Predict the 3D structure of the following.
Amino acid sequence: MKLHERLMEIALNRSFLIPSCEIYGTVGGFYDYGPVGCLLKRKIEERFRQFFIKKDGFFEIETCSVLPLPVLEASGHAKNFADPMIKCKKCEGEFKADELVKGVWEKPEELSKLLKQEKIACPNCQSTEIEPAGWFNLMFKTNVGPVEGNTAYFRPETAQGIFLDFSRVFRNHGTKLPLCIGQVGHSFRNEISPRKGIIRLREFTQMEMEYFFDPENDKIDGFAGVEHEQMRIMVAGSERMQKMSIKEAVKKKIIPNEIMAYFIAKQMRFYIALGIPYEKFYFKKMGKKDTPHYSRGNIDLEVETSFGAIETVGNAYRTDFDLSSHSAKSGVDLKVFIEKENGNGEGKSEGRKVMPHVVEPSMGVDRLFWCILEHTFREKGNGKEWEWFDIPPIIAPYSCAVYPLMKKDGMAEKARAVVAALREEGIDAAYGESGSIGRRYARADEIGTPYCFTVDYDTLKDDTVTIRYRNDGGQERVKISEVCGIVKENLKKGRVKLNG
Ligand code: GAP
């Protein structure tokens, strides 16, 4: 059994994931998060908020998922967000063309020629009678209100809501550039062939940021602090992995500017802290064919997994593409007035109008979630007869578990009081009374719980409990009064190893 097959089994059995609509027979591309998975996913999102948004004083907004057609006409998604399809004449199966055919084509005739040249066979029935079948737009269509014709779509990216709200946030929050707005939310894509578990979903979560800046000043505070960070990078067209500082990558124009480089450095720190080893991910400078219609330079982050390399982050230099398109379509001028620095602050302000440019780091939550499972999964061994997850404490679904050794003699009451105190402090603490203590430790390990506290007979005498550590099984005694402090202190721990 391949690792991803085993992991999916484990994910379903231990409440990380639940196939959506399971009792009706599942629909491909939709997954729910179970109680354990939901805790982990929320913590990933919260870490993103803390590390990428709040730490730098940026803003977060929450925008609507349904967007009227004109918005998506302006953004280019109505026309460009489509995949070329091919159809098998024999079994009528339909497939995404770029999954079967490697090469470049622009027109159906060119694709047709390629299909014949490469002798491409239908993955269903092996027939070579396959042909181009047009373009399939990936957006889910709907209608607003009872009157037909008010066409709208479920957003294919959270970014558009940020562009639409930009001018109001700019006006209300200091009328200055740079301005960065982030959002965490669901996006929807009617993927033709959803697969690989939660890697290609039809409804998924993105953590996106739009960094609006004056195109005459593409610098960012904080770059000097990370410029020596070493990245692993592959440039499209060459399979060679290079290692270089982000500063050098900007100098060589591999990264379009220091702003994107800054976010790349933060992504490296974030991924390592969340349990993805440095040598298991790299950046990829995309070639023209794979660069989205709105971007003047894309650098993806890819993680090595048992499914193969997976793109989990897309960094794009979107320039003024979106704001200019929305200005033109809506008739609302989205240029902003920037005051000249060092003005005397009196009388008529001096300055100029600019259409801000945008760098966008766009991170998928579900794919990162899966990569964390893959890279923190540990086989049986080293004294453990069960598989477990070495999830960093900062995102572990449960930060700790509390168990009474036995239910009798007041131990359960005491343990319940300990878990209540932890929960009162906002700590995710699991509690369990049934099964042997060894079995309960195993269950805690199996969902990545870093610490277990056990109430036993000694607790009744001296108010101490045993703390048992997940990773090495080591145990020691601590006072009950110290338990909350220990968990909180350890909650800050991720795995941080910088500069490669
Ligand atoms: N706003 C830019 C944008 O949406 P993208 O590269 O299409 O760029 C960004 O998506 C990230 O969103 C991806 O790197 C991936 O993590 C996640 N993502 C995209 N499509 C997905 C899908 N069908 N299922 C799960 N995650 C997806």
Notes: The two ends are 32 Å apart (CA to CA). The chain has three domains: 7-75+143-374, 82-137, 385-493. DSSP finds 15 helices and 26 strands in the chain. The first helix runs from residue 3 to 13.
